[in-house]
Amino acid sequence: MFSSIEEVIERFAKHDYIASRRIATVIYLASALQKPVLVEGPAGVGKTDLAKVLAASLKEELIRLQCYEGLDEGKALYEWEYAKQLLYTQILKDKVTEVLVGTTGLAEAVDRIASEDEVFFSERFILPRPLMKAITSEEQVVLLIDEIDKADAEFEAFLLELLSDFQVTVPEIGTFKAKKIPLVILTSNNAREMSDALKRRCLHLYIDFPNREQELAIIRLKVPDAAEKLAEEVVNVVQSLRKLDLKKTPGISETLDWVKALTLLNVQSLDNALVDETLDTIVKYEGDVRKAQEELKEYLRKARTRRTGTETTGSSDDKDLLN
């Protein structure tokens, strides 16, 4: 566990995660109070990485449940290994016959078989899924319930009991109560609104896109080989792109991908023909690419104006640079 907010920041920094004091405070309180954390925010701002770094910082196992439409208890909690049960039944066929020796009727035979239920309905035939793995773990784990907003409202309702009592019931066997309460991180990209009941059970954390200084710090940490001028220019353009009406706003992960691509191509400045050819690493739709191209041209025009002190049309020169 963490002894202070400052320790959270320090441990996360060792795993190349720049945690703001707000993030560190929520993580510290969640670990101390044993409360789940609902992390909301746009895609690509590091919500999933938060859970990964938390597990690494505490040297605990990370168990991940990826949510999707149609996810149900069976896929998230446990499944019966019916094929294994059937195999055991075939192997033990002779033993079953011995158990039935001396029975005089069908009812008596059924009662005799029923008395042996625990042989075939036991933990050995349960195939645990992420939620049960987290509940039954001998050591504390970090449970990541990723993109909970993609799951149905019915599944969200099922989670309420689990997050309240940290126990699950298997009708044929009994109730499994958590030996060590897991640290739970739920992430949401705001595809739909989470229920008030779920939010009541969780500490809330909203992670937004970073400001210019934060994004530069992340690039310096994650891509140390990138030229300083290139990093600054990339951040300036990305910050501008996020103000546009794009189908998919670029997140931190896309920024890092673009910087890595440009660095690999030995680009030192955005004033380079290769820049246009790498825009697909930061914007994912053709319409967004066109908007990004226009924004980049405008950025280069303004940059050239600042350097020369004169206004330029930018039409022919930028076309030569970008195409």
How does the SSE layout of this entry go?
Blueprint lengths: L4 H10 L6 H13 L3 E4 L6 H12 L3 E5 L6 H4 L1 E3 L1 H10 L1 H8 L5 H9 L2 H4 L5 E3 L1 H7 L5 E5 L6 H13 L1 E4 L3 E4 L5 E6 L7 H5 L2 E4 L5 H11 L5 H14 L10 H13 L9 H4 L8 H23 L6 H8 L1
Parallel strand pairs: 1-8, 1-9, 2-5, 5-8
Antiparallel strand pairs: 3-4, 6-7
Overall description:
By secondary structure, the chain is of the alpha/beta class. It has 3 domains: 5-75 and 130-206, P-loop containing nucleotide triphosphate hydrolases (Rossmann fold), CATH 3.40.50.300; 78-125, no CATH class; 212-322. It is built from 17 helices and 9 strands. It has helices at residues 5-14, 21-33, 47-58, 73-76, 82-91, 93-100, 106-114, 117-120, 130-136, 153-165, 196-200, 212-222, 228-241, 252-264, 274-277, 286-308, 315-322; strands at 37-40, 62-66, 78-80, 126-128, 142-146, 167-170, 174-177, 183-188, 203-206. It has a 5-stranded parallel sheet with strand order 2-5-8-1-9, with helices on both faces. The protein has a two-stranded antiparallel ribbon with strand order 3-4. Strands 6-7 form a two-stranded antiparallel sheet. A hairpin with a 3-residue loop joins strand 6 (167-170) and strand 7. Helix 1 (5-14) crosses helix 2 (21-33), helix 12 crosses helix 14 and helix 16 crosses helix 17 (315-322). The longest helix has 23 residues, at 286-308. The chain is elongated and about 105 Å long. The two termini are 53 Å apart.
Give a quick summary of the entry.
The chain is 52% helix and 12% strand. The protein is built from 17 helices and nine strands. Helix 1 crosses helix 2.
